[in-house]
Inverse folding.
């Protein structure tokens, strides 16, 4: 452990003690108490890891004293030596746990997410693949106990999705899904193909942290809001009132349309949620790009132009190109059951990259 790292640990412990003292005085304003409580709660598990690390160091020191003492008999020496070996093995893992816990948190990690899936190249087959991805994320959400709600959907003629936008809410949704952004490629024999040839098509996925009003300040004067009559497949009217809403954010040029609800008010509310999240994510990406300008080996920017994963059905394999990971369990990945086996290594890779950037 470097002296810088030890100093960092002391700072964390001192701040944790200071917060405990300040909160116990009972003369704080409600907003200050809430802020300190949140910070205290964040620091507590880190302090527990630090205390465990220091306790392990103390045990090692005590055992070493026992081994160095001429009064220790042979049987006790053997027992102490075995325990010392085990404790020394634990130290690097405990230190790594602390380093990971001290990594700067992505402020969006705890947020809900807006998940956007769009059919790319490949026509009807791409739309069917977009529907498969929709099913994969819905299954994954069910496994984690998240709420999965369609906000807008445009279906193809044969049951796929040209585009589908979903609200996913629950614990740490964005932290789990954020590396799913990018181009997902599929290789398989399409249902529409009579010759049995393998085709390649694609769908794009965008994962946006669901922004709250406090995250993005939108000036009403920067919005152009158009209302129109909702239409279904083939252009037929599905509503007799102008309930559909299109909102254009003039400074960024971001446009959101919403027509799933019969109420213009509800469509506007949904459109604003999507718009707010897209503006928030655009700003996050801008900041992230600036920070990562010098980083050569990153998991990926999440850019939708970047091919991130290939699903090869004939061989039953899934390959994530960012970390060169291949799993021969496509059937379980596409249902969401084994998706964590890809997401967890992606998170670990991102953490490893961040650790190399911090000078401790």
């Amino acid at each position: 452990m470097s002296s810088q790292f030890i100093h960092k640990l002391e700072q964390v412990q001192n701040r944790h003690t200071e917060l405990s003292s300040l909160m116990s005085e009972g003369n704080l304003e409600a907003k200050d108490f809430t802020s300190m409580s949140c910070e205290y709660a964040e620091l507590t598990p880190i302090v527990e890891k630090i205390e465990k690390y220091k306790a392990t160091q103390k045990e090692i020191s005590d055992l070493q004293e026992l081994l160095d003492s001429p009064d220790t008999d042979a049987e006790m020496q053997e027992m102490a030596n075995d325990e010392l070996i085990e404790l020394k093995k634990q130290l690097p893992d405990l230190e790594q746990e602390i380093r990971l816990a001290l990594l700067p948190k992505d402020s969006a990690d705890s947020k809900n997410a807006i998940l956007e899936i769009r059919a790319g190249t490949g026509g009807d087959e791409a739309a069917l693949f977009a529907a498969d991805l929709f099913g994969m994320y819905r299954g994954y959400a069910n496994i984690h106990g998240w709420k999965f709600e369609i906000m807008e959907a445009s279906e193809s003629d044969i049951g796929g999705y040209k585009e589908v936008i979903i609200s996913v809410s629950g614990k740490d949704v964005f932290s789990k899904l954020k590396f799913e952004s990018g181009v997902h490629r599929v290789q398989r024999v399409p249902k529409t193909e009579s010759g049995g040839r393998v085709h390649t098509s694609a769908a794009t996925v965008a994962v946006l942290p669901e922004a709250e009003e406090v995250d993005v300040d939108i000036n009403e004067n920067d919005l152009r809001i158009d209302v129109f009559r909702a239409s279904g497949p083939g252009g037929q009217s599905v509503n007799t009132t102008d309930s559909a809403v299109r909102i254009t954010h003039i400074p960024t040029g971001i446009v959101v349309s919403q027509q799933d609800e019969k109420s213009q008010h509800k469509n506007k509310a949904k459109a604003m949620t999507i718009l707010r999240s897209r503006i928030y994510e655009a700003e996050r990406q801008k900041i992230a790009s600036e920070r990562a300008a010098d980083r050569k080996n990153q998991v990926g920017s999440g850019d939708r132009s970047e091919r991130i994963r290939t699903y090869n059905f004939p061989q039953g394999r899934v390959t994530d190109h960012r970390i060169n990971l291949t799993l021969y369990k496509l059937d379980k990945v596409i249902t969401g059951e084994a998706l964590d086996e890809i997401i967890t290594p992606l998170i670990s890779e991102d953490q490893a990259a961040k650790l190399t950037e911090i000078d401790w």
